[in-house]
Design brief:
Shape: globular
Low-confidence stretches: none
CATH topology: N-utilizing Substance Protein B Homolog, Chain A
Number of strands: 0
Number of helices: 7
Structural class: mainly alpha
Number of domains: 1
CATH architecture: Orthogonal Bundle
Protein name: Transcription antitermination protein NusB
Function: Involved in transcription antitermination. Required for transcription of ribosomal RNA (rRNA) genes. Binds specifically to the boxA antiterminator sequence of the ribosomal RNA (rrn) operons.
Largest sheet: none
CATH class: Mainly Alpha
Family: Belongs to the NusB family.
Organism: Alkaliphilus oremlandii (strain OhILAs) (Clostridium oremlandii (strain OhILAs))
CATH superfamily: NusB-like
Radius of gyration: 14 Å
Mean pLDDT: 90
Distance between the termini: 29 Å
InterPro entries: NusB-like_sf, NusB_fam, NusB_RsmB_TIM44
Length: about 140
């Protein structure tokens, strides 16, 4: 399994957790690791999910702050899952370049979101990166 597919699976799990309002990683781990997932990708999935769950309030607060005029409960569930994934990577996984996280989030948005989702996701992530000065640290 490639990192791209691992990222997609992680987004789907975050989506499922949100829909079920159950952010207990033990409940999803059993079916997460069925099949042929390489150890490196298992580690990635586990780390992203842990960071997203442990920092859910902080991540959601950032999403609300940068999605001007949009309350969290008005953001489409899939868009929210994509943003939570991307912010988990950008903020807590410094080994992943923020540009990769943004590009991959946009690709997921093109596949799973509405026609507006890629621009919405790009706008929020781009504003965050700019405001936080991450572009200066390249």
């Amino acid at each position: 399994m490639s990192r791209k597919l691992a990222r997609e699976l992680t987004m789907k799990v975050l989506f499922e957790m949100h829909i079920n309002n159950d952010f207990n990683i033990q409940r999803v781990e059993h079916h997460l690791f069925e099949g042929s997932i390489e150890e490196q990708q298992k580690e990635y999935i586990h780390k992203v999910l842990n960071e997203a769950i442990l920092n859910l309030e902080a991540i959601d607060s950032i999403i609300e702050e940068y999605s001007t005029s949009w309350k969290l409960n008005r953001i489409a569930n899939v868009d929210l899952a994509i943003l939570r994934l991307a912010f988990s990577e950008i903020i807590y996984m410094k080994d992943i370049p923020y540009r990769v996280s943004i590009n991959e989030a946009i690709e997921l948005a093109k596949i799973y979101g509405s026609d507006e989702t890629p621009n919405f996701v790009n706008g929020i992530l781009g504003k965050y990166v700019e405001q936080e000065g991450l572009m200066l640290n390249e």
